[in-house]
UniProtKB/TrEMBL annotation:
One Gene Ontology term of the molecular function aspect: enzyme binding
Name of this protein: WD repeat-containing protein 70
Keyword Transferase among record annotations: no
Pfam families: WD40
Region feature Disordered, mapped onto this chain: 1-21, 44-170, 542-583, 633-656
Annotated Gene Ontology cellular component terms: nucleus; site of double-strand break
UniProt-listed PANTHER family: GASTRULATION DEFECTIVE PROTEIN 1-RELATED, WD REPEAT-CONTAINING PROTEIN 70
InterPro entries reported for this sequence: WD40/YVTN_repeat-like_dom_sf, WD40_PAC1, WD40_repeat_dom_sf, WD40_rpt, WD_repeat_GAD-1
Record-linked Gene3D superfamilies: YVTN repeat-like/Quinoprotein amine dehydrogenase (2.130.10.10)
């Protein structure tokens, strides 16, 4: 319809302008004609061009493949020609005979008989003569090259690999195990450096122990033990991405960083606990829960605490944190984070809180979380672990409500899968992904004497429980699957750290120390005194017989010089430059001079009357004033108590 309309318009243009319109408007024509387009022709031309280009591309690709095949064929022929001289001679004879037979087929029977007479050397076997020889096989007579001979074996290996890929359980390295004795209390922290050379364990006994697989023998003893946080339980240990530092998180409010040998590198500062806004303090003010290194940036790590904050730190600046994340409920109230971690690329920070929520922030935006799911686990339970998969799209969370859940970060509105009946009794129970990202591993807890702790494996795609390993008669607290070693480290509740490996699937690690025999303890070489017994020697040359230690001590005790007996106190007056007992010490001096009883037993009346005669003979104070007016002293009359009571008024008298 559109095409017919266009043709009508162009037809009107060719008919010429309307005469009345031309007279009215004052011009004689409408200018150039409108250009017409044939859409069907354009589509056909485009289709032909595309087909031509596709054909050229296909021909170029076929030529390239043919050239590659020719190169491989030439290489195989060169390998055959480099064989021993005997085989090359036989090959030349066979090639010449093949050429003669091919030429004889093209000629008549008579000419073939004459050509057979000209052959030199023994005839070919009947099998080679009877088989047709193609042009491609003319240069490949003799034994096949090694790559072609091993095709069957390669196919078998590929089938085995495909079988392992289809069943990831076969890749679990659990055929062998070794046990490292950390102590008697729970192993609450595990750390393995990126190269897999050293393992570090921490526990409720405040100890941190270092294990070197290359330097350890079959005795499985740690080469170093220390207490970096004094009397605080170790909650988390993690090597940095370079392997030169270890982050130590304990029950205190200050995290520490130590080097590979256990020496302290830095200690985080403690914040002011009297400030309400935790963002204005320089550090944590309450007990820590866990910590994690940044996977990409060297020297940056993260900690979470009971002060309801998640803080980022730098090793170069221990006096103040780098940034602060403050988890909040949907109503805006504080909530305590129990665990935290970085994503694999380091751009996201994830934390699980006590109200059951999981909050994920952008590392550069600390105010509002990027993702927030408020009921990931039951409120009031401590989510013990959150872990990102190696591809960074999936998050696994181990809850205190005995569940393990799988989340898709790209669609963080509901869990992908959930598994229950996984009891946990510790606030640091781990979960992790396998190196191929196809399995998820976690541990289970048990009461003492009520069974054995297990390591449970779930398939990521279907979340089916595909495998279990019974560890020991205690809870499984920590688990770690190293991607380079392909070995599984487990920390238990009875103070053991177990390493599971497979000699065929694992690398280094526990395989290095198992093959070393235990060193025998060297007996100390003691030099004893040689005694020369000469009974007829003179007394001055006789050596005293060795006595028992007890008798020698008793004899030395009686000797005042050897026993350093103090001198007894001097009785009576002093002698020999020593002061006597009375007043010879500070206490006796104090008793003598200060602490005396100075009570006055004298009569004051008699003491005054002693001076009466002198006052009468030589008056000085009072008597001269009364010498003229009252020369004779008059004293008041002494009245009895009965008379005084009679003179008192009735209202003053005492009522009996």
């Amino acid at each position: 319809m559109e095409h017919s309309g266009t043709s009508e318009v162009t037809g009107a243009d060719t008919a010429g302008p309307d005469p009345q319109l031309a007279v009215t408007m004052g011009f004689t024509g409408f200018g150039k004609k409108a250009r017409t387009f044939d859409l069907e022709a354009m589509f056909e031309q485009t289709r032909r061009t595309a087909v031509e280009r596709s054909r050229k591309t296909l021909e170029a690709r076929e030529k390239e493949e043919e050239m590659n095949r020719e190169k491989e064929l030439r290489k195989q022929i060169e390998d055959i020609e480099s064989a021993p001289s005997s085989s090359s001679a036989a090959r030349e004879r066979s090639q010449s005979s093949c050429r003669d037979t091919s030429s004889s087929d093209s000629e008549s029977d008579d000419s073939s008989d004459s050509s057979d007479d000209e052959l030199i050397g023994p005839p070919l076997p009947p099998k080679l003569v009877g088989e047709p020889v193609t042009t491609v096989d003319e240069g490949i007579l003799g034994p096949l090259p090694p790559p072609l001979c091993e095709e069957g074996e390669d196919d078998d290996d590929e089938l085995d690999d495909e079988g392992e890929e289809d069943n990831p359980v076969q890749r679990i390295p659990d055929s062998h195990e070794i046990t490292l004795k950390h102590g008697t209390k729970t192993v609450s922290a595990l750390g393995l450096d990126p190269s897999g050379a050293r393992l570090v364990t921490g526990g409720y006994d405040y100890d941190v122990k270092f294990w070197d697989f290359a330097g350890m023998d079959a005795s499985f003893k740690a080469f170093r033990s220390l207490q970096p946080c004094e009397c605080h339980q170790i909650k988390s240990l993690q090597y940095s991405n370079t392997g030169d530092m270890i982050l130590v998180v304990s029950g205190s409010s200050q995290a520490k960083v130590i080097d590979r040998d256990g020496f302290e590198v830095m200690e985080c500062i403690k914040g002011d606990q009297y400030i309400v806004d935790m963002a204005n303090t320089k550090g944590h003010t309450a007990m820590l829960h866990t910590g994690s290194w940044h996977p990409k940036i060297k020297g940056e790590f993260m900690t979470c605490s009971n002060d309801a904050t998640v803080r980022l730190w730098e090793v170069e600046n221990p006096k103040k944190q780098k940034s602060v994340f403050k988890p909040r409920t949907m109503q805006g109230k504080k909530v305590i984070p129990t665990t935290c971690t970085y994503s694999r690329d380091g751009n996201l920070v994830a934390a699980a809180c006590q109200n059951g929520s999981i909050q994920i922030w952008d590392r550069n935006l600390t105010v509002h979380p990027k993702f927030h799911y408020k009921q990931a686990h039951d409120p009031g339970t401590d989510t013990s672990c959150v872990a990102f998969s190696y591809d960074g799209n999936v998050l696994a969370s181990r809850g205190g409500d005995d569940t393990l859940k799988l989340w898709d970060v790209r669609q963080f509105n509901k869990p992908l899968f959930s598994a229950s009946d996984l009891p946990t009794l510790f606030p640091m129970t781990d979960c992790c992904f396998s190196p191929d990202d196809k399995l998820i591993v976690t541990g289970t807890s048990v009461q003492r004497g009520c069974g054995s702790g297990k390591l449970v494996f779930f398939e990521r795609r279907t979340f089916q429980r595909v495998y279990e390993i019974h560890i020991t008669d205690a809870s499984v607290v920590r688990c770690l699957w190293h991607p380079k070693l392909n070995q599984i480290m487990v920390g238990t509740g009875n103070g053991l750290a177990k390493v599971y490996y497979d000699p065929n699937k694992s690398q280094r690690g526990a395989k290095l120390c198992v093959v070393k025999t235990q060193r025998k303890a060297k007996q100390a070489e003691t030099l004893t005194q040689d005694y020369i017994i000469t009974p007829h020697a003179l007394p001055m040359f006789r050596e005293p017989r060795q006595r028992s230690t007890r008798k020698q001590l008793e004899k030395d005790r009686l000797d005042p010089l050897k026993s350093h007996k103090p001198e007894p106190p001097v009785a009576g007056p002093g002698r020999g430059g020593r002061v006597g007992t009375h007043g010879g010490t500070l206490s006796s001096y104090i008793v003598k001079n200060i602490a005396l009883d100075k009570t006055d037993d004298s009569n004051p009346r008699e003491a005054i009357l002693r001076h009466a005669k002198a006052a009468e003979d030589n008056p000085y104070w009072v008597s001269p004033a009364y010498s003229k007016t009252q020369p004779k002293t008059m004293f008041a009359q002494v009245e009895s108590d009965d008379e005084e009571s009679k003179n008192e008024p009735e209202w003053k008298k005492r009522k009996i």
